[in-house]
Design brief:
The protein has 306 residues and is of the alpha/beta class. It is 48% helix and 17% strand. The protein folds into two domains: 251 residues, Vaccinia Virus protein VP39 (Rossmann fold); 46 residues. The structure holds S-adenosylmethionine (SAM). This is Methyltransferase domain-containing protein.
Length: 306
């Protein structure tokens, strides 16, 4: 009933001034994520002490298993560089960094980045770098990273964004930073034909933040393709310890075109033909030279005799 009331009130506000409402929510979201405000913020950012040891470890383990399944199916080599967009308290970072040579954590708040680095350093020796995201220009956080990542993670983030444009920006960032053959593992919260499962912005952003933006399974598939990523695989988690209706997509970009290996049989045939032609030409040239020598010698002899 509370959610229904919130939805009706938010719809009325949005109808009264759609653009103003959207801008207000976007401003609130940027402020909300930029700095800690207490224990609810730490839980929403998935800090270890915010959601508890077990749930925190489960987030990273579950996501690594999903990634491994996708990687096996796609025949992906083990990743060199992994980037996580919206890394929060490092639950995924600690599960992925041990399998990589370099981990790049991007987030809106410095406190999240610091916590993520602390957790990775307590787990493994993989070098970890940070990038601060400014929601007014998220692309700035990727300067110098074009084509350098093998895996791009965006987990428990899309649902918190303030609409399809913000999601487009994230998918285009994934497209930019991924190396040829790289994979983005992106999670969304999906809605069904039941209207109550649709995401919406609350009257204030933090009143419904975890269900602000949802998509149908097909809508997100098409949106990813529109942003230059190739949707390859999908898995659904209708319910987990934290929430419900999650879909995970493996989105790839084409591997660099490699020159095809030579066809050995064709090469043999061509070299045999070439050798035959070459030998015939050499023999011909030698025959012509011998005949020329003979004739000039004969002519020489005639001149002497005369
Ligand atoms: C629920 S936490 C998820 C943390 C981590 N990805 C995980 O799975 O445990 C959400 C994180 O996304 C970040 N975030 C929120 N909106 C974002 C956006 N539009 N782009 C990137 N990060 C965002 C927040 O700062 C927060 O750290």
């Amino acid at each position: 009933m509370a959610v229904r009331g919130e939805r009706i009130l938010a719809a009325a506000l949005a109808a009264a001034g759609r653009r103003r409402f959207r801008n207000r929510i976007a401003g609130q979201a940027a402020r909300y994520w930029s700095a800690p405000t207490g224990s609810a913020w730490e839980a929403n950012s998935h800090w270890r002490n915010g959601i508890g040891d077990q749930a925190w470890l489960e987030v990273g383990d579950d996501h690594w298993k999903i990634y491994e399944t996708f990687a096996r199916a796609l025949n992906s080599p083990s990743p060199n560089t992994v980037m996580e967009w919206g890394a929060g308290g490092g639950a995924n970072a600690v599960a992925f960094a041990p399998h990589a040579q370099r981990f790049i954590a991007a987030d809106i708040s410095q406190e999240n980045l610091d916590e993520c680095v602390r957790q990775v350093r307590a787990t493994c020796t993989t070098p970890v770098e940070t990038r601060r995201i400014d929601l007014a220009c998220p692309e700035q956080a990727t300067v110098g990273l074009a084509g350098s990542c093998d895996v791009f993670l965006c987990l428990y983030v899309i649902e918190l964004t303030t609409g399809a444009n913000a999601v487009r920006a994230i998918l285009k960032i994934a497209r930019t930073v991924l190396a040829p053959g790289g994979t983005a593992l992106v999670q969304i919260k999906y809605h069904t034909s039941d209207r109550r499962t649709r995401g919406f912005a609350g009257t204030a952003y933090d009143r419904n933040l975890a269900s602000t933006t949802t998509f149908t399974i097909e809508e997100f598939w098409n949106l990813a393709a529109e942003c230059g990523l190739t949707p390859r695989l999908i898995t659904l988690v209708p319910e987990n310890r934290l929430d419900s209706r999650y879909a995970y997509y493996a989105l790839t970009i084409p591997a660099a075109v490699q020159p095809a290996p030579p066809d050995e049989r064709l090469l043999d045939v061509k070299y045999t033909e070439f050798a035959a032609t070459f030998n015939a030409d050499v023999a011909d040239a030698e025959r012509r030279a011998a005949r020329g020598n003979y004739i000039s010698r004969r002519e020489g002899e005639t001149t002497v005799d005369d």
